[in-house]
Every structure is written in C-alpha cells, then in structure tokens.
C-alpha cells in the first residue's frame, strides 16, 4: 500500500524511490499480490509519468521483475523513444536493452539488415580461412594508393621503375580498375538561421556512381561525413578518394523505407547517443543498430567511428570495446578500415590488448596498402620482449603473406576485367611474391638474431608455409594467368632460407 501511495505522489523524487522499492518488495510478496502490484504500479509509471528520472527507475524495475512481458510497453513505447536521450546514462543502457528485445519481438526484420549497402561491400571483400589456407569470396571493386615498405625492402630500383610506370598509366585520383564517375545535379536547401527568414536553395554538381555499377573506393565511402557530424580524420593509410563521397552521403537514405514508423523512431532516437561519453551507452547503441537496424554505409560508418573513439579509454574499458570490435570486424570490416592505424600496438598496451589488436589488424588487411602498413609495424613487434607476443607477431606475418596473394590477385583480376590485360594480373602476382620473399628473408634474419627456442621454432613453421606457398603457385580459382608466373628471386632468398632450415634441423 505504501508503494502504491508513493507512486502517485506529486514529487518525482518520491515516485522514483517508489519504483526502486518496487524491485525489492515484489519478490517477497505472494504471487497474487505481486501480479497486481506490478501491473498497477509499473503500468502507471510507464504510461502516465513523464519525468525521466521516474521512467528510468520504472524501466529498470520492469527489466528485473518481468523482462519477458514486453506487451506491457505498447502504450509507453513512443514516449520511451522520445525521452531516451534525456535519461541518465545507466538508465539508457537498460532502456535500450529492453527496447531492442521489444523491437526484435514485435517488428519484422528489415530487408536492409542482410542486403544493405555496407553488407554488399563487405561481402565482396571478405576472406574466409579454411584448413587448406585462405580463400577469397570474390573480386573486390576498390583499390588504394601508393605502397609502403614491407619487412625487408629489396630491389628499390625496380620498385621505382614500376611505380613510375603505374603513375603514368593511372589517372590522378583513380586506382587500378576504377571508372570515372559521372556528375549529376541536385538541389541543396540551406536552412535559415532565424525563424522569420526564408530558406535558400541552390543546385550543385556532385559525383555519382557509374551507371554500369562501378563503385567509389570503399575507404572513401566509409570516411564520409556521417549523419552525426563526426569529422574525417587526417592522414590515414586507408584514406580514399573524394570522388563519389557526395553520392555516398545520400546512399542508404532510403534503405529503411520498409521499416515500421515505430521501428524507425527507435533507431533514429538512439543514433545521437553514439556521441555519449559513457562507453556502455555507445556499446548498447551499436548493438541495437547491428541487430535491429539497417546495414547502410552511414550507420556502419557511425558505429565504427564511435567504437574507435571509446576504445582509447582505460584498459578495462579498452579490453571490452576491442573484444566487441574484433567480433564486428569479421562481419563488417569496412566500418573500421579507415582507422587501421588506431589499432597499431602501443608500448604501454597490456598483453591481452596486444593479442586482440593483432587479430583485428589481420582482419583489416584487405587491401595492398593495409598489408604493407601492417607488415611495416610487425618489424618492430618481432623485437618485443614478450615472447608470446613475438610468436603471435610471427604467425601474423605468415597470415599476411597468404592474404597478400589473394588481395593482389583480386586487384589484378579487377584491372584485367576493366581492360588492363593479363599483364596487370601478372604484375599483381609478382608483387605478392615479392612480399612473401621479404617476409621469408625477415624471418630468416630473425632466426639468426633470437636464440629463444620457442621463437625460432615459430619462425621455422612460418617459413615452411611461405616456401610451400611460393612453390605451389596456386591462387584463387578465378585466376588462371597468374598461376604460371615464375617467382622472381634475384637475391636467392628461397635458397638461403632452405639452407637455414636445414642448419636449424641439424642443430636441433
């Protein structure tokens, strides 16, 4: 009786205390009294009360007492969505968890969840690992800029000649196999600053995707100006071109047309909470949009930026966020591709964080520039004092050597399909072989510098895999011209590596 009386008090603080007391008193009541108390007090608070502090305590009590009776939220659903941003931080986490379960029960799955623009991009670029090695899904549609150094640079004169040849063949601002985008006109409305002024509108020319289906670079699309107003970071390895960004800004605006209006209300009301200072709130919003929202480029880009922002917090929070990112990277790598350098390992990172970052770096190595950037970082990781981390870094070198062949074959196949000829495919395979030889030479030097048996044994295992890869000459199933490319080894790296392996075997 006291809780029921306090629930109708004029002071919101008293009503809040009544909601908090309800969660403690109901388990001690008999079943009949508990049912009437919950249905009367919780329904009254959720339906009639407009104070955010009372709603926060009421939704927390609801999640503790009757989390499965989501039909009780029908009358208060829209009010909860509108007042979501005004609740306190921990109340927002509970409210979004309850509303996400409500959404998954009473709304149908959006078509954009499996066929969104971001999903289609990731499906083209994803690489799956099998017992026989790594297998590529299909040919990618984007490329990036200049190459970076790998583990041990070799044949610098040859690299300069090849770079000058490619610079002369490829127009400025376009990658291999890209198609010049067309221009379209659109009307832009500029809102007046004061209410008594009229809005201004003007036409502007923007780049659009090619009518035959050519896409703009993925990194450029994911680094667009998002709906939340996040700025584009500066120098980044995976920075894409500017062509097509305006068109990508509008891409995905109509991907949620099939959603119910109340479903849209929840997604749009929670989107602004990605800028919250509380990491738990940001993770709750990302979970809500990942499981209940559409997989558009705008939403995935906003999710990636928000998670990268909060992962720089304390090491406990950093571990939780990086674990979530590692799970998301395997499904939607394009959301995190522009932020590759944010996952580079720092000197003060703990051991558990370093291992997670290594896995993320491997999953993000889907372009030639990213592979070379990660290999450049691994040059310093293999000199670390932590033996477990050094062994993990050595295994990462072997994975990247395998990925390099598939990634370069993809780009070569795309360039060949766009009229570049079989020479593009052969050049791409030669670059992949060159990376594998550089990795092989770096590991061979590491066996001479490090005396630890565990590290040397890991190097031997990875060297055997790289040599087998170079001798096999097989690549993707769709690639035929590159299988007959002879591995150019002017410095006899393979012979030196084989002699080193035999010497280590004899010494063992």
UniProtKB/TrEMBL annotation:
<keyword id="KW-0653">Protein transport</keyword>
<dbReference type="InterPro" id="IPR011989">
    <property type="entry name" value="ARM-like"/>
</dbReference>
<keyword id="KW-0472">Membrane</keyword>
<protein>
    <recommendedName>
        <fullName>Clathrin/coatomer adaptor adaptin-like N-terminal domain-containing protein</fullName>
    </recommendedName>
</protein>
<feature type="domain" description="Clathrin/coatomer adaptor adaptin-like N-terminal">
    <location>
        <begin position="3"/>
        <end position="402"/>
    </location>
</feature>
<dbReference type="InterPro" id="IPR026739">
    <property type="entry name" value="AP_beta"/>
</dbReference>
<dbReference type="GO" id="GO:0030117">
    <property type="term" value="C:membrane coat"/>
</dbReference>
<dbReference type="GO" id="GO:0012505">
    <property type="term" value="C:endomembrane system"/>
</dbReference>
<dbReference type="GO" id="GO:0006886">
    <property type="term" value="P:intracellular protein transport"/>
</dbReference>
<comment type="similarity">
    <text>Belongs to the adaptor complexes large subunit family.</text>
</comment>
<dbReference type="Pfam" id="PF01602">
    <property type="entry name" value="Adaptin_N"/>
</dbReference>
<dbReference type="InterPro" id="IPR002553">
    <property type="entry name" value="Clathrin/coatomer_adapt-like_N"/>
</dbReference>
<dbReference type="GO" id="GO:0016192">
    <property type="term" value="P:vesicle-mediated transport"/>
</dbReference>
<keyword id="KW-0813">Transport</keyword>
<dbReference type="InterPro" id="IPR016024">
    <property type="entry name" value="ARM-type_fold"/>
</dbReference>
């Amino acid at each position: 009786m006291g809780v029921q009386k306090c629930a109708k008090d004029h002071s919101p603080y008293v009503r809040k205390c009544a909601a908090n007391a309800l969660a403690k008193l109901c388990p001690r009541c008999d079943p009949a009294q508990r049912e009437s108390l919950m249905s009367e007090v919780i329904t009254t608070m959720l339906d009639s009360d407009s104070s955010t502090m009372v709603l926060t305590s009421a939704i927390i009590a609801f999640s503790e007492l009757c989390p499965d009776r989501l039909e009780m939220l029908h009358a208060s659903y829209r009010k909860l969505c509108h007042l979501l941003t005004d609740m306190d931080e921990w109340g927002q986490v509970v409210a979004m968890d309850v509303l996400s379960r409500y959404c998954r029960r009473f709304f149908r799955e959006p078509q954009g969840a499996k066929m969104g623009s971001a999903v289609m991009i990731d499906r083209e670029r994803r690489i799956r690992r099998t017992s026989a090695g790594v297998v590529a899904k299909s040919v990618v549609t984007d490329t990036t800029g200049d190459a970076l150094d790998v583990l041990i640079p070799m044949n610098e004169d040859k690299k300069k000649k090849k770079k000058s040849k490619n610079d002369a063949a490829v127009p400025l601002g376009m990658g291999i196999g890209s198609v010049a985008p067309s221009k379209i006109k659109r009307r832009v409305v500029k809102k007046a600053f004061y209410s008594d002024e009229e809005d201004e509108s003007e036409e502007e020319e923007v780049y659009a995707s090619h009518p035959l289906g050519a896409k703009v670079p993925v990194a450029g699309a994911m680094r667009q100006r998002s709906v939340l107003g996040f700025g584009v970071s500066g120098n980044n390895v995976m920075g894409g071109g500017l062509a097509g960004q305006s068109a990508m800004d509008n891409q995905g605006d109509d991907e949620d047309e099939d959603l119910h209006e109340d479903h849209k209300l929840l997604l749009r009301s929670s989107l602004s909470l990605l800028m919250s200072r509380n990491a738990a709130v940001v993770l709750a919003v990302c979970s809500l949009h990942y499981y209940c929202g559409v997989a558009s480029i705008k939403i995935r880009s906003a999710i990636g930026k928000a998670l990268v922002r909060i992962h720089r917090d304390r090491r406990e929070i950093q571990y939780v966020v990086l674990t979530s990112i590692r799970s998301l990277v395997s499904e939607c790598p394009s959301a995190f591709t522009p932020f590759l350098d944010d996952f580079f390992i720092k000197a003060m990172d703990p051991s558990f964080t370093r291992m997670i970052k290594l896995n993320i770096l491997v999953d993000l190595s889907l372009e030639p520039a990213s592979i070379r950037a990660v290999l450049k970082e691994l040059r310093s990781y293999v000199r670390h004092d932590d033996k477990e981390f050094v062994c993990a870094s050595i295994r990462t070198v072997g994975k990247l050597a395998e990925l390099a062949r598939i990634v370069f074959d993809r780009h070569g196949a795309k360039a060949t399909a766009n009229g570049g000829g079989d020479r593009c495919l052969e050049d791409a395979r030669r670059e992949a072989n060159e990376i594998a030889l550089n990795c092989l030479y770096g590991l061979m030097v590491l066996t001479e510098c490090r005396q630890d048996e565990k590290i040397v044994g890991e190097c031997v295992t990875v060297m055997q895999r790289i040599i087998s890869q170079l001798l096999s000459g097989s690549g993707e199933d769709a690639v035929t011209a590159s299988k007959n490319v002879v591995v150019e080894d002017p410095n006899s790296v393979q012979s030196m590596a084989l002699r080193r392996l035999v010497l280590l075997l004899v010494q063992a």
